[in-house]
Amino acid sequence: MMGRWRYWRLKTKLLFLTLFTSALGITLVCASLIFVENQNYRKQLESELHVIAGILAEQSAAAWCSRTTSS
Q1: Are residues 5 and 13 in contact, defined by beta-carbon separation less than 8 angstroms?
Q2: What's the sign of the alpha-carbon dihedral 23, 24, 30, 33?
Q3: Which domain holds residue 45?
Q4: Residue 1 lies in a domain
Q5: Residue 2 covered by a domain
Q6: pLDDT by residue (tens digit) across 10-55?
Q7: Number of H helices, E strands in the chain
Q8: How far is residue 42 CA from its own chain's centroid?
């Protein structure tokens, strides 16, 4: 391909380089967006699981206390 590069017209070279640069930029933006969204999803899921675990712990403790006091 590089041997033929010399014989390409200037307009074709500029078009190819513009297309390549645009595709590379879009790919990098998509990859970084996927990475950031994945990290945010993990943090949000961890936060929600902590809340659910707290609620379950409170209700389990309340049920255990009411069970021990009624016995």
Answers
A1: yes
A2: negative
A3: 9-70
A4: no
A5: no
A6: 999 999 999 999 999 999 999 999 999 999 999 999 999 999 988 8
A7: 2, 0
A8: 8
**How many C-alpha atoms does 33 have within 13 Å on its Cβ side?**
6
Question: Which residues neighbour 16 within 8 Å (Cβ) at sequence distance 6 or greater?
Answer: 8
Q: And the tokens for 31?
A: 């990859």
Helix (H, G, I), strand (E, B) or coil at 6: coil
Residue 58 binned pLDDT confidence (cut-offs 50, 70, 90): confident
In a domain, 3, yes or no: no
Residue 35: both structure tokens together: 């990475």
Element (H, E) at 7: none
